[in-house]
Amino acid sequence: MLGITLSASSLAQPFWDQVDEASVLEGTPSIRALGYRPHLTLTRYSTIEPSVLRKGMEVFDRQAAISLYFDRVDFFDHDPLVLWLAPRQDQRLLDLHRRLHAALGPKALPCDPHYAPEQWRPHLTLAMAIPASKRPDALQLVSRSLDAFELTFDSVDCVSWPPVQVLHRLALAGRAGSR
Question: Which of 45, 61, 86, 161 has the smallest number of CB atoms closer than 10 Å to its CB?
């Protein structure tokens, strides 16, 4: 797989606390096993030239870091079940996502349909391998309230996986408010 992510270089302790709580439901903690920063995947492809992705990343040139507030846990109802943190809606993030896909254009087709602009749900994955037997426990985590926290995404990465390898990183400019 190849893709583009927004990543956070901060300690992100509230995120990692949620990861550790959710990963108890997995056989092996899937997010810790990545060895990669907290991130939002913007696009994903089974095959694509990294140079095309790198060119698409140009829409982030001179863009400020993106601060998002996360205030609830949600899930993708697959087998295995995936738990994730939902950010508050942020128009700037959605606009940049659309601009990225427009910049990638027809050379980047077909992307994973879950990451297409009309289908994409911004999410910060907590656990991606929760077995069906742990579904009731996972849904209990989803039903609990979450103390909202802010996380600033300060880099755009072109990555390949598995395992995660950063092929190119573009640092975003200083922090900008985004709520």
Answer: 61
Output phi, psi for 54, to 5 deg. -60, -40
Question: 37-63 burial by CB neighbour count: b if 16+ within 10 A, else e?
Answer: bbbbbbbbbeebeeebbebbbebbeee
pLDDT of 164-176, one tens digit each? 999 999 999 875 5
- Match 């989803």 to its residue by tokens: 142
For residue range 145-169, what is the model confidence (pLDDT) as tens digits? 999 999 999 999 999 999 999 999 9
* Distance from the Cα of residue 56 to its chain's centroid: 17
User: pTM for the complete prediction?
Assistant: 0.94
Report the domain count for the chain: 1
**Of 144, 171, 1, residue with least CA distance to 85:** 144
Asked if the model's pLDDT at residue 86 lies above 50, the reply is yes
Say how many CA atoms lie within 13 Å of 166 toward its Cβ.
Answer: 15
Domain that holds residue 170: 2-176
Residue 119 pLDDT greater than 60, yes or no: yes
CATH number of the structural domain spanning residue 51: 3.90.1140.10
Q: Is 82 exposed, middle or buried (0-12, 13-18, 19+ CB in 10 A)?
A: buried
